[in-house]
Design brief:
This protein is of the alpha/beta class. Helix content is 45%, strand content 17%. The chain contains eight helices and five strands. Strands 2-1-3-4-5 form a five-stranded mixed β-sheet, with helices on both faces. The longest helix has 19 residues.
């Protein structure tokens, strides 16, 4: 968890900080395969969550849609979209830091726990978390991230006033 938090924290000193990062490692050896951060705003793509981007890049590198034999570490509990993507990949295990409730203090969330998404599927994946929650949550409370959350919130409120989503 410390490695993915350190990796994600590097964004906090950039123009586009994000608190969401993911790392995929071999389950047996812990050898890193791929890591990514959220790029929703950078790519103008609501599916560009760290977990989804990491799965895409890892599968491309492996030339396979299967991540059996791998574990994902995520700075935050995967949202339902990300968790579904992880289940479809066949990944062994997902370990997360901050919770959906932690993220919801700062930005919009869908309140369906990752473990519940797994339980409602016919696919298996071990879901472990929160792990190192306080460490992961520091990504959300960094001064630059708090500033950006305010901008995101203002943009959402402005759209709502104009009748947009």
């Amino acid at each position: 968890m410390a490695e993915v938090v350190r990796f994600t924290a590097r964004t906090l000193e950039t123009e586009r900080p994000v608190p969401f990062g993911a790392l995929i490692v071999e389950t047996k050896t812990g050898k890193p395969l791929m890591k990514r951060v959220n790029a929703v705003r950078q790519e103008n793509d609501p599916s560009s969550h760290a977990e989804v981007r990491t799965v895409r890049a890892a599968c491309k590198r492996l030339k396979s849609p299967s991540l059996k034999g791998y574990t994902m570490y995520s700075t935050c509990e995967p949202c339902p979209m990300c968790m579904a993507n992880l289940l479809w990949s066949g990944i062994d295990r997902v370990v997360y830091g901050a919770t959906i409730a932690d993220a919801a203090r700062h930005c919009r969330q869908i309140y369906i726990p990752a473990a519940e998404v797994m339980e409602r599927s016919d696919m298996q994946c071990e879901v472990v978390g929160p792990v190192e929650r306080e460490l992961a949550y520091t990504l959300f409370t960094h001064q630059n991230m708090l500033r950006v959350f305010k901008l995101w919130s203002a943009g959402t409120q402005a759209k709502a006033k104009r009748g947009g989503r």
